Amino acid sequence: PAGGVSLRLCSTRVTLEGINKPLIERIIRVDHAGEYGANRIYAGQMAVLGRSSVGPIIRQMWNQEKDHLKKFNELMVAYRVRPTVLLPFWNVAGFVLGAGSALLGKKGAMACTVAVEESISDHYNSQIRALMEDPEKYKDLLQVF
Fold first, then answer.
1. What whole-number distance in Å separates Cα of residue 103 and Cα of residue 98?
2. How far is Cα 81 from Cα 21, in angstroms, rounded to an integer?
3. Would you kindly state where each structural domain of the chain is located, as residue ranges?
4. Are the C-beta atoms of 45 and 99 separated by less than 8 Å?
5. Inter-residue contact 40 to 91 (CB < 8 Å)
6. CATH for 21-143?
7. pTM given for the model
8. How many Å apart are CA 107 and CA 102, to the nearest integer?
9. Which pLDDT tens digit goes with each residue over 38-73?
């Protein structure tokens, strides 16, 4: 989510009438898994580098990811989307990737972060293009991205 934009809903659910439900479910499920994985990457990096000079930078980036995950948790409830069954895998794999990259030092951890963020940006841009086919219908989601 860019700029801390908040999705304001009248209730915990949104009207699903007229939306492409399979598309929205896929987008929210995949993005939630990605944000969950990113949180686990930062947890792994903090486990290794948390007390080093780069610890505060990692903590700051992790806090942003926590906000992103919170937003996708809210979207999952609002759009009635179930999480991926692969969350236990992302839990372990994300932590191992984060800790493993951190064992390479600050440069290794930052290289991992840059690679993941670039991939996520490409992914979000692709989703935005799909939602822009009917921007009025998906304006709330587009504001989140």
1. 9
2. 9
3. 21-143
4. yes
5. yes
6. 1.20.1260
7. 0.85
8. 8
9. 999 999 999 999 999 999 999 999 999 999 999 999
